[in-house]
Amino acid sequence: MVDIKRFREWLIELKENVNGQAKDVQIEGIALAVREGHIIRKLRDRRGVILCAKYPDATVDGDADNFSSGNDMVLFLLEKVPSGSQSDEDELAHYAALQQLMLVLRNRLMDSPFVCDNEMQVVSGLTIEWEYDIFGGWNGLSIGFKLQDYA
């Protein structure tokens, strides 16, 4: 099971790395919560693009001497956009900018087979989905994957 304090540090490192490579849009902050529904309260007064995550769920395999945990992960890149406030062109431009940011995030996850000082490894395919009006009016993209940890 991923140490949640180290997981938060990893999200901060990921944000900084992505922002260092991003061209037009920057991640302004991080929201980490126990459940996706709890993220709504964490996002209430936030502005800009936020990297959101919930604490990872874990499935442990092996025995006491040799085990690893598979952690199901979903990260969100979201920005608050009031429903119906954008023209079709503005909406397309907004999603296009967030898509470029997501591609930098995806590449960062794929480039580094081990993260957190060889404690964790991205082990399964990445799934990217579009998000609309989630968590009380936030739009963007999400990326799902499995993170294997050996601690």
Task: Give me the strand/helix succession.
Answer: HEHEEEHEEEE
Distance N to C terminus: 7 Å
Radius of gyration: 16 Å
The poorly predicted ranges are none
Beta-strand percentage?
A: 35-45%
Helix content: 25-40%
Taken from the alpha-carbon principal axes, the silhouette is globular
Q: Number of DSSP strands?
A: 8
Individual helix count: 3
Structural class: alpha+beta
Q: Main beta sheet, described?
A: 8 strands, mixed
Instruction: Compute the average pLDDT.
Output: 84
Task: Write a structural description.
It is a single chain. 33% of the residues lie in helices and 40% in strands. It is an alpha+beta fold. Strand 7 and strand 8 form a beta hairpin. The radius of gyration is 16 Å and the shape is globular. The protein starts with a helix and ends with a strand. The model has no long low-confidence stretch (mean pLDDT 84).
Could you provide a short overview of the structure?
By secondary structure, this protein is of the alpha+beta class.
SSE blueprint:
Blueprint: H1 4-21, E1 27-33, H2 36-43, E2 49-54, E3 57-63, E4 66-80, H3 88-111, E5 114-115, E6 120-122, E7 127-134, E8 138-149
Parallel strand pairs: 1-2
Antiparallel strand pairs: 2-4, 3-4, 4-8, 5-6, 6-8, 7-8
Helix pairs in contact: 1-3
What attributes characterize this protein structure?
eight-stranded mixed beta sheet; 151 residues; 8 strands; 3 helices; alpha+beta; single chain
